[in-house]
Amino acid sequence: MSHPCTIHCSFWKLVPLLQLFGCGEIVLQTTDELESSSNPTMSDAGIVNDTFSISGSSLTDLCGTPVVLRGVNEMPTFKYDSKDGSSYFGEITQTNANAVRLYWQTSDSAEDLDRLLLNAEAKRLIPVIYAFNNANTNSTTTFSDAAAYWTSRDVLPIVLKHRQWLILALRERSAAGASAVETDWAANVDAAVKLMRQAGINVPLAVDAPQYGIDTVTLAQVASDRILADPRQNIIFSVNAWWPNISYDQIRSYIAAASNTGLPTMIGEFSGYAQGNPECLNVTFDYATVIQLSQDARTSWFAWSWGAAPNTPPCTTFNMTSDGKFAGLYGWGLDVAVTNPNSIRNTSVAPTFVPGAGCPK
């Protein structure tokens, strides 16, 4: 006979202890009830931060333990039958991923955002989420546009509610974002970060490098000043490895330019195929070098993209799965997720902090 399993329900968390302990019958328990009973392995006493935080070049969880993000990109804004992630987060977790990077729009509602983040917490996937103004039309989005969305009246309470299990990304689609002129990029970053910190958003901010994330050389020159300009000094720099037709040594030099600064960096996007002009090229990309060097440097990364909301022609080579299911992984996606020695499955480690449960005693 199955034994009861307790799920902790509070104002901002839902933790699937059923999944953790393999229980049968589910018993819902309130925050007060949970706190009145003793948890033999986890405790709030070990929490040292109120959000994920940066320590040197490392991202740390609320217990102060370093975390290296390993995961995939997904586009829930286009998954109209499952915008909340419920149909594919469980599939992604079968890779052993500890995080998911999410494509959102500033027109998406606070209610949808809340459900999406709740489901990410339930599957213990750290959400790294960014918002564009209109993904369908590829319209201009600035750092300040994204900051305005996250600090808006309806969305800000959701961000604060999920602050213990959340990273927000700042991206641009604008002339300044495409420019290698560091002063334009830096001024836009600093203004957006200031607005978000003034609103009380203290979570890590993953900021795209110049030129839509590909310019690691300029990033290395100005990154330290951006961290110092942040009152929380809680910034990760995101590099998008869309470098067409380059050699192993060039990939190594680009990644080294970011990692050698000693500042926190993640690879936000890469694929088994190159991106260029036209946008999607039928040219293979040395992704194996990216994940090998990232593992050597303990750099976080996210592959583009899972495929529950698939990339459409001519970009279908970017899909990791045929149908958004774990069983549908194929080609470079299967290698990155499972079979490569540096794959998600072989390198991902779960944070010590558990949403709703705390830190190990």
Structure description:
- This protein has 13 helices and 18 strands.
- The chain has 361 residues and is of the alpha/beta class.
- It has two domains: 5-37, no CATH class; 50-352, Glycosidases (TIM Barrel), CATH 3.20.20.80.
- The chain has an eight-stranded parallel barrel, surrounded by seven helices. A three-stranded mixed sheet has the order 2-1-3.
- Strand 8 (70-74), helix 3 (89-93) and strand 9 form a beta-alpha-beta unit.
- The longest helix has 17 residues, at 182-198.
Keywords:
18 strands; alpha/beta; 13 helices; eight-stranded parallel β-barrel; globular; 361 residues; TIM Barrel; three-stranded mixed sheet
CATH A-level architecture of the largest domain:
Alpha-Beta Barrel
* Number of continuous helical runs: 13
The CATH superfamily title of the largest domain:
Glycosidases
Query: What fold name stands as the CATH topology of the largest domain?
Result: TIM Barrel
Q: Please give the alpha-carbon distance between the first and last residues.
A: 31 Å
